[in-house]
Structures are given as structure tokens and as C-alpha cells.
């Protein structure tokens, strides 16, 4: 009998029958509270009726048309809707299918626009698994080892990971910016540097919000040297952090913004947005692929943005995020192996440490696994795998957060005792 590839290693034995809102029902009839939302993908909750209806309706009209041949209405509407929430300078949008593809498109664009080869990414960043995106990724060796040579022309600069360095945040920011300057002086000169790529909150790298002063430092250096500042909002964007975009916790705005994941509540679509003068530096045909801007995915994205607006989900992410954070802080108070609780909005995490303060991957994995027995789905992250992330849908209710915290408390106790 043919089996699934062993590469598709599942963290849980759950087989989904159906899902709604914050909940997943297994084929065994168990009901799980889903605080993974497919790594933040099901932003409006599982199978939001308006998203389902929009996709159903679109499927009966046209499923796919190559937008380089004929345009379709969902993509026109989506572009208008995104225009309402994007920084006004980013007045041109290009569509692809996945985060990685959009990352690749942004790198190609930065290189074509500047005529320079190098990209500087930041330690702990995750930008995807395609060979170029993997080269930008430093959220664990599993993402970049064993298939070299990966894309060249990439340098990884420090990210201000204050907790791991054991420093206060200001010291960590000063260090990261000084090291970046040193890199620009000694390894990748501005004349050779096309772009900086950074996540407003490191996702797979451990849910570390980029401090505003750090982002502002990148913006200043990008302005000064005509380097393209690319913000990868794939995980932090679309309301997740309690602002529509993760970078809106700072005063900066990017030259290129990348979005995917939560954009269409689970349908595969991604986009890069940039000023039209920058976007037009790539020539037609140099970017894109067969399924980019698929009509059903675009219709689901339009419905997603409407639901986020109509149901005030960005505000909900902020309010429910505070509730979640308070609960996690309380758990930390009674559990010395939770080294740090951090995050923004509904993008929260706990970093586990040993008694000696070293990264505790074993405990993070145990918490995730034991939580399944308490009918709570969680994900780990962190470059060293010692962080548990909590990512409810943006629609999550106060009762669901309370239930999730109760289950988490029980799972922590069981993982600890076990
Ligand atoms: N960038 C970030 C910040 C991500 O979190 C991810 C996915 N985890 C990607 C890019 C890659 O997206 P995809 O898996 O859709 O290719």
C-alpha cells in the first residue's frame, strides 16, 4: 500500500474530520481547541461561513485564469481592499501562491532594482524553504543544511534577542545595529547590498518582536545607502499582532511588504506590495507562476479582509491578546522553567529553559505533546526548538482563551511531572 512520505512527520496523531472557528473535530470524534490555526493561516477561524460562501460562489464562476492573459474580478477587488490597509506608498501589488514564492519575488525585485547582489537577513529569521528563501533563513539548521550550495550573496546579521544574550533590550538593539554597520563596512558594502529582509516579529525563530528602535535603525540605514527594506509580514501581518501589520508597532514603513498565510484564511495566496516605480524595475515575465493570484484564493482573501473589517478582528486580536498574555504571565509566575513570555496580540509564546537557564527543547516538545491529550493544539518554534507558540484565530472568544489557558496549565503540570 502506498503511504505518505516519511517527511510528513506529524506532531500529533489527530486526523481532522472537520473544523469550525477555533475548533477541530477528529475522525475519532474528539474536539480540539486549535491554538495553531495552521501556523496563523486560518485568521478568521476555520471555515468562516463568509469565506466558505465566497470560495463556493467563485468556484462556480471561474476557478483559475492566468492573470497575465485575462484579469478576473476577485483580483481587482483584492487589490482595492489591500490598498485600503497597506501603507499608501506601496501602491502596486504582485501576487503569488506561497510565502516563499513572494520572498523570492522580493529578492529578485531588490536585486533588479538596485543592480546589487547581496541581501542581509537577520539571525533567527524564517523566510521559507525554497532554496533561495532557505538561504535567508537562520531559524535552525534543519532549514538550510544538507542541500548546499544554497543561494549565495546572503549575509546574516544579529537580531536583538535580548533574553538569550542575557542583556536588556537597549543593549541588544545597540549591539545588533553596531554589528550591522560593521558588516556594511567590512563584508557587504552598501554598493554591494541590494536589500535587508526582516520579520516584524520573528515567527519560526521564536516569536521575538523586533523592537521599534531596531526597525527604525534599519530604515535609517536603508534610506542612507539606497538599500531596499523588505518586511516579511507573512506570519505577523493581517491583524495577528493587534495592528493590521506587524511593523505598525513602530514608526517605519517598508519598501517591499510581503504577505501570505492569514490573507485568505487557508487558501494559498501571497502578495508583495511596493511603490510602482520600484515594482516596475522587474520586467514582465521575470516574476510569477501558473497559479499566482488564483481566482478562488483571491475571492477567499477578499472575504477574509471583509470579515476582519466587519467583525473588528484586529481589535479583537489586541483585546484577546492581552487576556492571553495576562494568563501566560501568571503561568510564568508559578513556573521557573518558563524563562520568558513574549509576543504581540495573538502571537504569543513561552520560551522554556532548564534550571541552569539553558534552552529547554525537551520541555517545549513535551508541553506540545501533552497538550494534545488535553485537547489543545500548540506548536513549538525557536531556532533551538525551546519555544511554544500560541496562535488562536483572530475570532477567538474570551471563553476560548480561558479554556485554552486552563488546558495549557494542566498540560504544563503534566509535562513537568512526567
Ligand atoms: N516568511 C515567514 C515569516 C513565514 O513564517 C513563512 C512560513 N512559515 C514563510 C515566509 C514561508 O511561507 P510558505 O510556507 O507559505 O512558503
UniProtKB/TrEMBL annotation:
Q: Which domain of life is it from?
A: Bacteria
Keywords (alphabetical) are: Aminotransferase, Pyridoxal phosphate, Transferase
Q: Does the keyword DNA-binding apply?
A: no
**Which GO terms of the molecular function aspect are on file?**
transaminase activity
Task: Return the Pfam families for the record.
Answer: Aminotran_3
Name the InterPro entries on file: Aminotrans_3, Aminotrans_3_PPA_site, Class-III_PLP-dep_AT, PyrdxlP-dep_Trfase, PyrdxlP-dep_Trfase_major, PyrdxlP-dep_Trfase_small
UniProt-listed PANTHER family: AMINOTRANSFERASE CLASS III (PTHR11986)
Name assigned to this protein: Aspartate aminotransferase family protein
Q: Which organism is it from?
A: Ferrimicrobium acidiphilum
